[in-house]
Write a structure and sequence with these properties.
With 141 residues, the protein is an all-alpha fold. The protein contains 5 helices and no strands. The chain has 2 domains: 10-81; 87-137, no CATH class. Helices cover 73% and strands 0% of the residues.
Length: 141
């Protein structure tokens, strides 16, 4: 059943492609002639199409604005929750946590002084999330 549906969809897509190719190959004069012969008003149809296009464009812009606002709100929430930490305080808190709680970085066989500032801040944040370090208490547990 699925193969039959997908085959029918392929045929419809091919038909739509052929119709569009035929339409694009037709000259403006031929299209205007066909519309007039069918009793249509080319000017009225043009106005309707322009209005539809502008409405679609307006709707697309609204959706873009909506997405941009959602993105801004998402980044504002992150920015507000991010605290700036003095690297010396972070290093001191790590050193204290490792000495106090018997924590170690055995897998890397390093101390806090061997870490880059970025690594210190990352580990500091990790230990805050784990509840080992309390940032409100000056980095003490």
């Amino acid at each position: 059943m699925t193969d039959k549906r997908s085959d029918e969809r392929r045929k419809l897509a091919s038909l739509a492609d052929a119709l569009l190719d035929d339409l694009f190959a037709t000259s403006d004069e031929d299209i205007l002639k066909e519309v007039t012969e069918a009793g249509g008003d080319p000017s009225a149809i043009s106005d309707q199409m322009r209005a539809r296009f502008e409405e679609t464009l307006l709707q697309a812009r609204k959706e873009r604005m909506k997405a941009a606002r959602a993105g801004r709100r998402a980044t504002q929430g992150v920015a507000e929750s991010t605290n700036v930490v003095d690297i010396s305080i972070a290093r001191q808190a790590l050193r204290h946590a490792f000495q106090q709680d018997g924590l170690s970085m055995a897998a890397r066989n390093e101390t806090e002084s061997d870490l880059t500032d970025e690594e210190v801040l990352r580990k500091y944040d990790d230990l805050i999330r784990l509840g080992v370090i309390d940032p409100e208490n000056g980095g003490d547990p």
